[in-house]
């Protein structure tokens, strides 16, 4: 074990300060103390026992100078960690401080000083945990906190997935209402075209009636000096009959106009209902956005999904605004034509 300590010391002297880690410090310290204790026990046995085991003889020979600790050796970081762990385990197997003190007194001063300098210059934290908490209790507490956090992340993930399902349902409903709004706008355009056509026909008929009235007056003036009341009477009857036909046609156009006006009012009412429905959907989407914004302590995957949902909601909100602007422009154009 002392020979392994020498290997660790040789490795330590050839390493940079940046490579001295917390684990290596602890293992080397335990290994040195264990080696000291074992060395003291074996020396005590060599004084009272006539026969020694091969391992004990090897240690005695080592103490008599058969092994040259100062010889050049080469040890890697993994070997140093293994040697330090073996020293720690050997020290833990020893009982009492007397044997450890004996081992410590028999350790060469240069070796002990080198090990102490190395351990003191490291970043080993030997302070006990706060509130007299053992490392096992702290580990169990951290495991419990980890499980609690995993459970919270799972619950938040399920909530985000549920919110995503609800958002998808709202998107489908919004798409359906969008198609319905488009069809209603097309119907409104057709109604406006029909009404414009009827207005044009009405104006044409009114012009024709005015022309016929002027023609009748001119005919009366032409036939004012003519004898023959029969011809004048027949002409008047023909004109009156033509006027009655024109009046009937105008009445039909008026009835069609009133019918189209009723349809236009119904279309406006339907558009108003769609606007209210879109406003409610918009409010619901904004509430979902606020719920998603209030979420905290989520995992990276949950945050990515939340960002995707926010972009989709933003696109849908912009689409709703464009639809509202188009609807308002249509209603304004309709009011101007009325």
UniProtKB/TrEMBL annotation:
Pfam families: CC_Liprin_beta (PF26022)
Transmembrane spans: 24-48
Coiled-coil residues: 132-159, 236-291
Name of protein: PPFIA binding protein 2b
Naturally occurring in which organism (per UniProt): Astyanax mexicanus (Blind cave fish)
Keyword vocabulary terms for this entry: Coiled coil, Membrane, Repeat, Transmembrane, Transmembrane helix
InterPro entries reported in the protein's UniProt record: LIPB1/2_CC (IPR058914), Liprin (IPR029515)
Record keyword Membrane present: yes
Stretches assigned to the Liprin-beta-1/2 coiled-coil domain: 136-240
Keyword Glycoprotein: no
GO CC terms, sorted: presynaptic active zone
Gene Ontology terms: biological process: neuromuscular junction development
């Amino acid at each position: 074990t002392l020979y392994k300590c020498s290997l660790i010391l040789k490795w330590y002297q050839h390493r940079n300060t940046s490579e001295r880690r917390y684990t290596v410090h602890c293992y080397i310290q335990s290994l040195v103390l264990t080696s000291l204790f074992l060395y003291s026990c074996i020396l005590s046995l060599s004084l009272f026992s006539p026969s020694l085991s091969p391992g004990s003889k090897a240690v005695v020979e080592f103490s008599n100078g058969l092994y040259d600790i100062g010889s050049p050796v080469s040890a890697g970081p993994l070997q140093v960690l293994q040697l330090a762990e073996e020293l720690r385990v050997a020290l833990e197997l020893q009982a009492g401080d007397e044997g450890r003190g004996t081992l410590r007194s028999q350790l060469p001063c240069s070796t002990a000083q080198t090990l102490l300098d190395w351990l003191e210059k490291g970043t080993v934290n030997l302070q006990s945990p706060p509130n007299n908490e053992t490392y096992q209790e702290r580990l169990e507490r951290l495991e419990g906190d980890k499980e609690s956090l995993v459970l919270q992340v799972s619950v938040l993930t399920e909530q985000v997935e549920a919110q995503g399902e609800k958002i998808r349902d709202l998107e489908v409903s919004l798409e359906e209402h969008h198609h319905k709004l488009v069809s209603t706008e097309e119907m409104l355009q057709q109604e406006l075209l029909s009404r414009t056509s009827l207005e044009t026909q009405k104006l044409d008929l009114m012009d024709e009636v005015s022309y016929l009235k002027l023609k009748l007056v001119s005919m009366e003036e032409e036939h004012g000096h003519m004898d023959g009341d029969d011809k004048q009477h027949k002409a008047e009857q023909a004109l009156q009959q033509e006027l009655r036909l024109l009046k009937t046609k105008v009445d039909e156009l008026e009835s069609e106009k009133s019918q189209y006006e009723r349809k236009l009012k119904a279309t406006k009412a339907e558009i108003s209902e769609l606007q209210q429905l879109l406003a409610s959907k918009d409010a619901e989407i904004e509430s979902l956005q606020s719920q998603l914004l209030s979420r905290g302590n989520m995992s990276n995957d949950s945050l990515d999904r939340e960002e995707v949902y926010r972009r989709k909601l933003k696109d849908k909100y912009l689409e709703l605004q464009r639809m509202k602007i188009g609807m308002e422009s249509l209603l304004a154009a309709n009011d101007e034509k009325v």
